[in-house]
Amino acid sequence: MSAFTTRFAPSPTGRLHRGHALSALTAWTAARAGGGRFILRIEDIDPTRCRPEFEAGVVEDLTWLGLDWDGPIRRQSDHLQDYAGVVDVLGRRGLLYRCFRTRKDILDAIGDAPHGPAEAARPGPHPAEEEATLLAEGRPFAWRLSLDRARAALGVRAWSQLAWVEEGAGPDGERGLIPARPETAGDVVLARKDAGTAYHLAVTHDDALQAVTHVIRGHDLFEATHVQVLIQALMGWPTPTYRHHPLLLDASGRRLAKRDKAETLQSIRERGVDPARVRAELGF
């Protein structure tokens, strides 16, 4: 059996706040208590929002909190060819299709879909003649994973057995063996022109590559697990055990977020707050 291995994998799109500290401390504490490994991964596949100064801030903030990590930091932007190779494998198996629809097109379709968002999020391939015209025009496109083709590739039995073990709890208290329902996400984007890979593909690839046995993260990513389990099955990658934990909320009951200007760990540090106090306030 592989040694207990977990990770903290922030996107460097801003400075870390208490919510990040909670997630990092939860994973780090579990790894150290289990005599296992704690990995730091920088998920910087979005070139329009990620910044080197924020990556440096991640290291600074975690070090201030008293956390350490095992092995070198993996920066996803250094490994785009790895992810392109996975896209190529899935494409050659006929599991992907080109989608020229914009995000706005999909959102508009979701608003009009009679059977809900999942239906609209499965736009399907363009007719061959239309696709050829769009390619000739140089129109940008995304590679979407076809749920219909994925189900056919796995077979009815394997599809029905898609599941993961939840040792934490989902937003509604889900725990134990959770049946995966990738259809709730629709035909997800696995790669696009402005970013050679998308989150679901990069994260499942790296979890397999880095032998992550336990994914410890917040409730906000619980639903993402459904499609990630499908990708793991299609690629023959192991499915880790998952431990989702509650999010840290502000006074109004909203989760802390960079976009809402949540107080950063940098600001807390500059106020002279001792890191031991922050750890104690978060239950560590």
How many strands?
A: 10
State the helicity in percent bands: 40-55%
N to C succession of SSEs: EHEHEHEHHHEHHEEEHEHEHH
Low-pLDDT ranges: 109-117
Q: Which strand order does the major sheet show?
A: 1-2-3
Mean pLDDT: 91
CATH class group of the domain at 1-72 and 249-284: Alpha Beta
Q: Strand fraction band?
A: 5-15%
What do we call the CATH homologous superfamily of the domain at 1-72 and 249-284? HUPs
Distance between the termini: 29 Å
Q: Which architecture of the domain at 1-72 and 249-284 does the CATH hierarchy give at level 2?
A: 3-Layer(aba) Sandwich
Summary, kept brief:
The protein is an alpha/beta fold and 284 residues long.
Q: What topology does this entry show?
A:
Elements lengths: L4 E4 L9 H16 L3 E6 L9 H14 L8 E2 L4 H13 L3 E4 L3 H10 L4 H4 L7 H9 L5 E4 L1 H8 L1 H5 L2 E4 L9 E4 L9 E4 L6 H11 L4 E5 L5 H12 L5 E5 L19 H6 L4 H7 L3
Parallel strand pairs: 1-2, 2-3, 9-10
Antiparallel strand pairs: 4-5, 5-8, 6-7
Describe the structure in your own words:
The chain is of the alpha/beta class. It has a domain at 1-72 and 249-284: Rossmann fold, CATH 3.40.50.620. It has helices at residues 18-33, 52-65, 80-92, 103-112, 117-120, 128-136, 147-154, 156-160, 199-209, 224-235, 265-270, 275-281, and strands spanning 5-8, 37-42, 74-75, 96-99, 142-145, 163-166, 176-179, 189-192, 214-218, 241-245. Helix 1 links the parallel strand 1 (5-8) and strand 2 (37-42). The radius of gyration is 20 Å and the shape is globular.
